[in-house]
């Protein structure tokens, strides 16, 4: 999403973090569409791992992060806030992270002819009773828990959780290479009516489209979490954040981003659109902007809203 005019060059280029998951890409493109067409800014994205893009953000190499998940890099987040390197704006939405199973594993699914195979499965503490159900195809003596994908902070968190909960005695922790591989493992199991247990989060297209149940974990305790991650994930308020000099450089864009707020459901709609239509994040963002004019028009002045509408 870039154009080159003298006006835009004078206003500057606003850069967005792209840690390479779908929901942040959708929110990037929603914000970019509005900034480019409503405010005449140039924009760009800078891609990398979660840790790398957050580091670049705190060092001023990236202007905006549309989804800061503090629980996945709590120390770095708190340090950046304390140092005044970033400004945390609105809560974009509140997500969930944890270990999930397809609900049919517990409850069955009469319409699909599936009988419940783990009717008493409620928490991670119950998983050792069902290691045979979640058999690791490469090591049948143990079950397999799918963890966070490579280069995501959640990969290290889920690996430690498996050990802290003592699940490593009966399960192997498997790390998918990409977010797509993680999602594909669930979809493959679902379509084959097979059991699956692993890390996932909301909002995603998968969690919006499929019936999933999150397993219980010990109640969140900050001291325990900071020590070994041995509790539920903390409440996941996901923030829109900007680098500390953003308001000075882009005051009108700052006013817009200060109003940016969606929800898990609104984000999930765009992700389902991507999935159902084999659409890019940019295409889904444009669809979302057209579909939810009543939402985003509240974030901007009337004249800006009209310019965005004219760009459909």
Give a structural overview:
The protein has helices at residues 6-11, 22-39, 50-58, 74-83, 103-107, 153-164, 179-191, 205-209, 222-228, 246-249, 251-258, 264-277, 281-291, 293-296, 302-310; strands at residues 13-18, 42-47, 64-68, 86-102, 135-136, 139-146, 171-174, 198-202, 212-214, 236-243. By secondary structure, it is of the alpha+beta class. The strands form three sheets. Strands 3, 4, 8, 9 and 10 form a five-stranded antiparallel beta sheet that branches. A three-stranded mixed beta sheet has the order 5-6-7. The two termini are 14 Å apart.
For this entry, give a set of tags:
single chain, 15 helices, alpha+beta, 43% helix, five-stranded antiparallel sheet, three-stranded mixed sheet, globular, disordered N terminus, 312 residues
Short characterization:
The chain is α+β, with helices and mostly antiparallel strands. It is built from 15 helices and 10 strands.
